[in-house]
Design a protein that fits this description.
With 68 residues, this protein is an alpha+beta fold. The chain contains 3 helices and 2 strands; from the N terminus they run H-E-H-E-H. It has one domain.
Length: 68
Amino acid sequence: MFRWLVENNHAEIVALSDLQERKVSQAKDRLNKWQTTAPKTCSGKKNEWKKTNTLDIMRELRVLYNKE
């Protein structure tokens, strides 16, 4: 579903996070095939995802949502 949304310009994946670096890397490799913008990534420690600056991501989502 995400692939269809991205390929049809209905969504953009802006961040990927997992405790296992391997899973983040695999997801990023797959995403690079159908999205040109690289997402922010984080992995490893339990609270590492907090470094993605969730507030900025929410602002981006709001801007994209309000364009329609």
